Amino acid sequence: MRGSDRRTVVVLCLLALVALAATGLAGGSTIARNGYSLAVEGSVDTPSVTRSFDGVTYEVDATARVDPGLVCVTAETPTDGAYRVYAYNNRQQILTQQRAEGNGTLRIDLRDADAGSYVLSLTDDGVHQVVHPVLVRGYEVDASVPDRAPAGGRVNATVETRHLRGAGAAAVTVLVANDSATRERTLTASGPDTYAGRLPTARLAPGNYTVYATVRGSDRAFGERELLGFRAAGDLRLTRHTGTASAPATPDTQSTRNDVLLPSTDESGTTATETPTRAPAGTLVVVLLAGLAYRLARRRE
Q: Which portions of the chain have biased composition (kind: Low complexity) (predicted)?
């Protein structure tokens, strides 16, 4: 890319970020690996998860949320050599690509992209060095969740959606996650474009979590149900349960992003345990003495 062209791209991307800030889509979380990195406009930080793409495993901790158009991408490489940034659709087919050299800003053409899940890959010498998930929004999503709740109970959640483009929703979910556990709950329709549900937290340890509201389609993309919309709904702090009848929640470190919880067997998510009662020592002495006196009285008869 020539110097004048690169300056034009940078200016256009800055203008795009100003416009995105007005819509709440601005951002640019970076995913890095082996000295390579990709930062995409509209990115939202997500819990770090392992994803496999084209036979290679990557750590992913951000997802870009964009509308169809030219998407600004900042690429960094350990050398000044040439590389390519590819955009793959949900069938892992190449939608578009762009060649660049050294660190810089590119514009990836997603103007004709349907709503759904995509992956950007920075490829050097034919090897995928770093990948970045991208969602082309099919739905606008808003959510209402509490910022604090006792661990072991249930969290009420309400999600409102607005269809923007493309396929219809197959499921609306609420996902609670941090770096050690992730749980997801499918909500039920409670009105036009409104969904509600109660998320059990019995298997989540006390601590800080982020709540995400997602709209998922019927197709699968990159190993999970395709995203059509999502929003980071806010932070949730699960506090320790102070009751004496319930056992503390056991940390669930084996959860996956696609793990949909089944309803708990009771409202609290915990089970009360009966404990045998031990009589005071003085009571036992009185009972033994009373029994001995009764036996002596019978002998005298």
A: 264-276
Other CB atoms within a 10 A radius of the CB of residue 183 amount to 22
Give residue 55's region: left, alpha or beta (phi > 0; psi -120 to 50): left
Q: Alpha-carbon distance 128 to 136, whole Å?
A: 22
Cβ(149)–Cβ(199) below 8 Å: no
For the chain, list the domains and their CATH numbers. Answer: 3-136 (no CATH), 139-239 (2.60.40.10)
Question: What is the number of other CB atoms lying within 10 angstroms of the CB of residue 71?
Answer: 25
Contact between 156 and 145 under an 8 Å Cβ cutoff? The reply is yes
State residue 241's pLDDT score: 67
pLDDT by residue (tens digit) across 118-139? 999 999 999 999 999 999 999 9
Measure Cα distances from 2 to 47, 70, 256 in Å. 37, 19, 44
Cβ-proximal residues to 200 (8 Å cutoff; 6+ apart), any chain? 154, 185, 261, 263, 264, 269
